[in-house]
Amino acid sequence: MGTLYKKVCRTPNLRKAARAVLTNAQKSTSESTRDEAKNFQLSLDKHLSALRKELVAGTFKFPPAHGVAAKKANKTTRRPIVIAPIKSRVVQRAILDVLSNLKFVKGVQKKWFNFGGVEDGGVAKAIERTYRGAVHYPYYIRTDIKDFFTQVPKDALLAIVTKHTDDPQFDELLKTAIQVELANIAELKDYKELFPLSSRGVAQGSCLSPLLCNLLLHDIDVHLNSGDCMSVRYIDDLIIFAPNRSQAFKRLKELKQALGEFKLDAYDPPTRGKESDSSKAATGETKKGFSFLGCDVSPEAISPGKRARNSLLAKVDALCIAALASQRHLKTGTPMPMTFASDPTMLSTLWRISNTVRAWGAAFSFCTDRRIFKQLDKDIEQQLADFRRNWSVKTKSLNVVERQRLLGMQLLDDTNFKSDFAELVAFRAGTKLPKGGNK
C-alpha cells in the first residue's frame, strides 16, 4: 500500500472529510440529501469504520450516483449535476485532502490567477483583482470555456497528477473517483447525453472536479499573466486585461490555441460585422464598465448584475407562488399535523424568503452600490404585500383556528397530551376520556 493511499485510509482523514461533506449536505436544498446526511451522522463511527475496512482491503467501490438535469435560470438549456451518495463524497473528499497537501498542488493553488475551487479564493476576491485589473488596463475581453466540465479530458487530468504521486493504488482510486455512473440513466432520457459518462468530462458536484480542472489550466493561467497582460479566472469564467485591443485579441487567440490541445474552446466576443455566439463573451474599454461573475464592474462602483438581481426576485416570487398554490390549507381540519420545515404556512414561507434574501445579500456584500440593495428591498416588499393580500383571500373561508394553524402558529390545543394522568383521573371520576383519547 502506497503512502498516499494509506493517508486516504486513515481514520482521522476520513473523519475530517466526513465533517466537511456532512456540513455541506445538511445545507442542501434536497430533502433526500439532508436525510441521507442525517442518517450517516447518526452512525458516523460505524460508517467510517466500514469505509476504512473496504479501502484497506481494496474492495471499496463507488456506488452509482444520481443525475439531475437542472434548469438554468431564464434558459431552456440544462446543467448536468451529479449527486453522489454520502459515502462516495467522503472518499472523494479524503482524496482531495491528500491531493491538496502535495507540494506541486500547493504551488498551483497559491497562484493568484484563479479564484474558483481554491481554499483562499471566492467571488469577492476574484472581483477585487478584476477591479484592480480594470484600473490598470484600458481594454478587456471576457469569455467562458465552452462546456468545460462535460468536455475536459479525463486522461489529461489524471496524467497531471500521476506524474507526481508514485502510488499506483492511489492513482487507481483517483481514476475511479472521477468516473461517472448513474443509477437513474433511464429516467434522464434525452438529457443523458449531457452527463460525462465517457472519456471526457468530470462531474459537476464532485469536490475533485474544480481542483483537477485548475491543475489542467494552470500553465494557461501563467501564460495569460505574463508580459504586459493579466487575467482573472474563476473555474471556466475568464477575463483578460490588456493595454490595447490588439493585445487583448492576441491573448484570446493564444488561449484558444492552448485549449485546442485538449479539444476545448472559448467563446468569441462580438466584433465588427460578427456577432458573438454567446452572451458569455464581451470586449471593450474598461472605463465603460463590464460584467463578470454576476457583477457589474465600473470605475465608480461594483454592483450585483441585472441577471443576479432578477434571479433573486424570481426566487422570492417562486416561494410565494408555491405557498399560494399549495392545497395544504384544505387539510387544516384533519389529524395531519402541520410541520414548519415542510408545510407552506405563511411563517415558513416568510422564513424561507428571509433566508434567501440573507444568503443573496451575503454573496454580494462586497458590492459598493447600496442604492441597488435598497431598491431590491422595495421590490421584495411589493412582492410580499401581494403575497399577504392573496394569502388573505385564500384563507378567508377558514375559521379562526384553521387560519392560525395555516399561519404557522402552534396551538395549545394541538399539544400531544400524555394520556397517563387522563386515564387515572377518568377512572377516579367515573368519566370517559374525550374522543381521541388524550385531549
UniProtKB/TrEMBL annotation:
Pfam family, one: RVT_1
Spans traversing the lipid bilayer: none
SUPFAM superfamilies for this protein: DNA/RNA polymerases (SSF56672)
Keyword flag Secreted: no
Domain spans labelled Reverse transcriptase: 51-297
Keywords: Nucleotidyltransferase, RNA-directed DNA polymerase, Transferase
MF term (GO), any: RNA-directed DNA polymerase activity
UniProt-listed InterPro entries: DNA/RNA_pol_sf, GrpII_Intron_Splice-Mob/Def, Rev_trsase/Diguanyl_cyclase, RT_dom
Family the entry assigns: Belongs to the bacterial reverse transcriptase family.
Protein name: Reverse transcriptase domain-containing protein
